[in-house]
Amino acid sequence: MGITSPHRHEQKIMQMKVTSEQAKQLLTDQLSVWESARDNYKALEAVQVKELTVEGCTVKIQFNPARIVSSAAKVDTQSLKERKCFLCAENRPEVQEGLPDGSYTWLINPFPIFPEHFTIPVNEHLPQLIEKRFGDMLRLAQAAEHYVLFYNGPKCGASAPDHAHFQAGNKGFLPLEKELKKYRRIPIRTEKSARLSQVEDYICPFFLIEAESEETAEKLFVKLYNALELKEGEPEPMMNILTWYEDGKWSSCIFPRAQHRPSCYFAEGDENILLSPASVDMGGVFITPLEKDFRKIDAEHLEKILSEVCLDREKMYEIIEKLK
């Protein structure tokens, strides 16, 4: 599979499936020529990490200064209008190349959290919405099965809410992915052999779809999507999603959200913590771009943050009642 130039007008291409090996080779090739990205990946080797126990679960805090670009991103309508979309091919750095994958393109993320971190934008400038793209997420995860795919809603951590995209990171990095089997599932609905459950005994409650077929996974997701609250003025229900494919089965973790950013994000003085939770945080790795926050943050801070940005058990119960 050839690498495409970002500055060539993209034409309709035949359906392709990027494999884990091809994605990894793209990363190797790009880091050999892209100095600033190479420096950011090299910096991950020395990144500071600490562990905390939240609601009985082990989570990690990562001090990652390069992520200030995403954590502090302005995503209001006016700011989006005033900046060029960095996911559109014509606006990418000259050095950035990509792998075509149907209507998407795999790009390395130059501001990584994972040792192998990719952004997968759609080739057209279309808004970040999941309803019609969940099946695409499943297919991408199956083809590149060494990676976890994730989706951040337009007001749930996405720094490019104006351009539809997924991200991918290597398996084995997120605590949730490694420990999912130990959490108790409360069954809600089935679709043939597929199952939609609520997972309760985690740092925050979430919905889990486990399926062996793309069709049944999509059907359960549509039912869940339609049961979630759509806030006034929002284009879709607020959510983060983590999906991976293993042993012939998809696991999709859907985190409904109550709000975009916690109160500490906007606080002043000692109360301020620059933490803008997204899918990776929900997976158990909280990203702090400022050292003061990395040193200060404790389990109590995280519990408060999660209580503000995630749905409480009562709201989750309301959704479950709609699904029954």
UniProtKB/TrEMBL annotation:
Chain ranges of the DUF4922 domain: 26-170
Residues of the GDPGP1-like C-terminal domain: 183-320
Pfam family, one: DUF4922
Chain segments annotated as transmembrane: none
Superkingdom field: Bacteria
Region forming the signal peptide: none
Protein name as annotated: DUF4922 domain-containing protein
